[in-house]
Design a protein that fits this description.
Bound molecules: pyridoxal-5'-phosphate
Distance between the termini: 51 Å
CATH superfamily of the largest domain: Type I PLP-dependent aspartate aminotransferase-like (Major domain)
Strand order of the largest sheet: 2-8-7-6-5-3-4
Order of helices and strands: HHEHHEHEHEHEHEHEEHHHEHEEEH
Radius of gyration: 21 Å
CATH class of the largest domain: Alpha Beta
Strand content: 5-15%
Amino acid sequence: MDCTAKRIRLLPRYLFAEIDKKVRIAQEKGVDVIKLGIGDPDSPTPDYIVKRMQKEVARSENHTYPPDEGLAEFKEAVAGYYRQRHGVKLDPQKEIVPLIGSKEGIAHISFCFTDPGDINLVPDPGYPVYGIGTLFAGGQVQLMPLLKEKNFLPDLGDIPEEKARRAKLLFLNYPNNPTGAIASRDFFAEVVSFAKKHDLLVCHDAAYNEIAFDDYRPVSFLEIPGGKDIAIEFGSLSKTFNMTGWRIGYAVGNSSAVEALYRFKTNIDSGLFKAIQYTGVEAFTNPQREPFLQELRTLYRRRRDIVVKALREIGWTIEAPKAAFYVWAPVPEGYTSQDFVAFLLEKTGVVVTPGRGFGEHGEGYFRIALTVDEKRLQEAMDRIKGAVKFK
Ligand SMILES: *Cc1c(COP(=O)(O)O)cnc(C)c1O
């Protein structure tokens, strides 16, 4: 049988396959591999959330199909959180839709807006789902390079007029994966004008909106005047509450965009397990939320400091990221990102992610995920110190 659709056959080759294979071989040889590749929180979901789930899973009324539009209680909890945290007022009926993890909504939004031949503006390097969703919907990707000299913000003036005119969606993600960059209100305001001028929808991926350091607090795109007219924002409980495996997120913002996504979803999925939605209510409304988040930020900040300090000692000039849980650093001269990652694995047993895996403009960089404990992280950095000189 070989009748797969073009959209499956044309999927880009899995860039990490080669690294994964090398890791397996090293582990089989008995190497103590330290994995700093994947951005999946290593600490558990907080107890107060797990306890609510234990209760909700036992209630038989939660075992049936959830309401199509999502549980009112969960949407109200998200609205309450946006009001408290961002000063943004949301109508739970019209401006919020629960998602089976934000990745799901990010992948599906293109199906709601992008017709074959339309263009989506996609940051590069970036989370691969923006581009894949675009291609699946039959759209074309116009890359927006994120360059260090522009603080890893796209230069909207660089987007060719003809492409901007054909564009339907503009994807953004701040705090940013993989670069750790943040966006100012001024930049977001510039995006609002650009979107209004070209009549497009901004899709802001805010997966890391609670992971920030040194008194910096990420802003919501919806805080920006006019933001709600032209934007949908994707939120996730995955990174905020160490809940990547639970699959719960949400989209908020412009009511027609939310309605389109909701209408699409009701035709292909039947929503989120009610017990998980009630647990989401607990995550946002329990008074333990903020103390837990403070602790989480401290945990990642300390890990960040270990990595930044060590890289500087070896000769890297890098700034400490103000948000997200990654360190994005240039590879030493003479290496491609994939060569450097392979070299590092072979010499030290430490696995990091090659920047090229996030797009062509990720070439020349590698990403360290701060998702192992301090002791292991220090061990990894000590090994790197012994093997690498940065030139
Ligand atoms: C982890 C991550 C997500 C994902 O989340 P889910 O809600 O778990 O689907 C979305 N965007 C970016 C940039 C991420 O790093």
